[in-house]
Write a structure and sequence with these properties.
The chain is of the alpha/beta class. The relative contact order is 0.18. The strands form 2 sheets. The protein has a 5-stranded parallel sheet. The protein has a two-stranded antiparallel sheet with strand order 5-6. The protein contains 5 helices and 7 strands, in the order βαβααβαββββα.
Length: 166
């Protein structure tokens, strides 16, 4: 029997919040509660230390970090922090491309660069270690269905991979 997993979703809020909400609302795994705009404004007013504390609190007790990769996810400061924090805290880490999911206006984003390209572990680029998944399908509905069917397995794979790097 597989244990219930709790995950933290990392994504580019400005561009991909709608797509991330679709994944979070699938109900496949328990995800972190999204910060409401006014809550995030309050946190961010506290500066870098407040943001760091908020992220750390949100990630506490999570099994894995799911980086939802859109057009401009890679290289973002807080996403990089979340990746490093999750890895250093022995969480499973994985990426799922969401460029094929539509936003609220029906637009799909373009395929983005892999954020794990920016990290090295013992001389290896993290991209060669961390599982990253490209959902299959041509329409937003097909990609949504692919993520929904496979997300739990993606998470289990990421946790298994992380355990190999104790």
């Amino acid at each position: 029997m597989r244990m219930s997993r709790r995950v933290f979703y990392s994504f580019n809020y400005g561009e991909d919040a709608w797509r991330a909400a679709q994944v979070r609302n699938m109900g496949v795994v328990e995800g972190n509660r999204p910060a409401a705009d006014n809550e995030w404004q309050d946190v961010s007013k506290g500066g870098d230390n407040a943001i760091t504390r908020w992220i750390n609190q949100q990630m506490q007790g999570r099994s894995a970090l799911v980086v939802l990769i859109g057009a401009n996810t890679a290289g973002r400061r807080w996403i990089n922090y979340e990746i490093e924090h999750a890895w250093n805290n022995r969480m499973g880490v994985l990426g799922v491309y969401i460029s094929g999911l539509s936003d609220r206006d029906g637009r799909m984003s373009v395929y983005g660069r892999n954020p794990f390209d920016d990290f090295n572990l013992r001389g290896k680029v993290l991209t060669s270690i961390v599982p990253t998944f490209m959902p299959i399908g041509y329409s937003s509905q097909e990609i949504y269905a692919s993520i929904k069917v496979n997300l739990s397995a993606y998470i289990e794979r990421a946790i298994s991979v992380r355990n190999m790097y104790a």
